């Protein structure tokens, strides 16, 4: 038996711009509302619109869609941009909790949701800059 993998980009598989925007909106809604994500919420400005827009632009390119972030800001340099913040396992896990909830709300294809979660976990784990 041969396993077929879906070679389309995450951007195409998620449905493009509109579902990606909803994913990011849900992500920040959960960050703003869940008491257990207070540490990462306090790392952000009171108004989350700028962060929401930047995450949308980054994820668009990261998922294989338009490279909006790079076009506007250049290379993401994620670790460098996150160095001013103390990011350990707890902060990574808080970020991933928001993303898991957002994926559950927006992505109806369970296999795609699980693939995205695993891939984003790698990105979130890479942001850690604190030894545990």
TrEMBL record:
Keywords associated with the record = Heme, Iron, Metal-binding, Transport
Q: Which InterPro entries match?
A: GlbO/GLB3-like (IPR044203), Globin-like_sf (IPR009050), Globin/Proto (IPR012292), Globin_bac-like_CS (IPR019795), Hemoglobin_trunc (IPR001486)
Give the top-rank taxon of the lineage listed in the UniProt record for this protein. Answer: Bacteria
Kindly name one Pfam family recorded for this protein.
Bac_globin
Q: PROSITE patterns per the record?
A: GLOBIN_FAM_2 (PS01213)
Cofactor requirement: heme
GO MF annotations, alphabetized = heme binding; metal ion binding; oxygen binding; oxygen carrier activity
Stated family: Belongs to the truncated hemoglobin family. Group II subfamily.
Name of the protein this chain belongs to: Hemoglobin
Q: Which organism is it from?
A: Mariprofundus micogutta
Lineage start: Bacteria, Pseudomonadati, Pseudomonadota, Candidatius Mariprofundia, Mariprofundales
């Amino acid at each position: 038996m041969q396993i077929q993998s879906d070679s389309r980009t995450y951007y195409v598989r998620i449905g493009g711009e509109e579902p990606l925007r909803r994913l990011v909106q849900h992500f920040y809604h959960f960050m703003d509302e869940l008491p257990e994500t207070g540490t990462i919420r306090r790392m952000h400005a009171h108004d989350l619109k700028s962060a929401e827009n930047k995450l949308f632009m980054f994820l668009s390119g990261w998922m294989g869609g338009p490279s909006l972030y790079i076009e506007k800001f250049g290379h993401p340099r994620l670790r460098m941009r996150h160095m001013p913040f103390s990011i350990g396992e707890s902060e990574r896990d808080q970020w991933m909790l928001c993303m898991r909830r957002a994926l559950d709300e927006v992505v109806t294809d369970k296999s795609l949701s699980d693939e995205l979660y695993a891939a984003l976990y790698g990105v979130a784990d890479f942001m850690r800059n604190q030894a545990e």
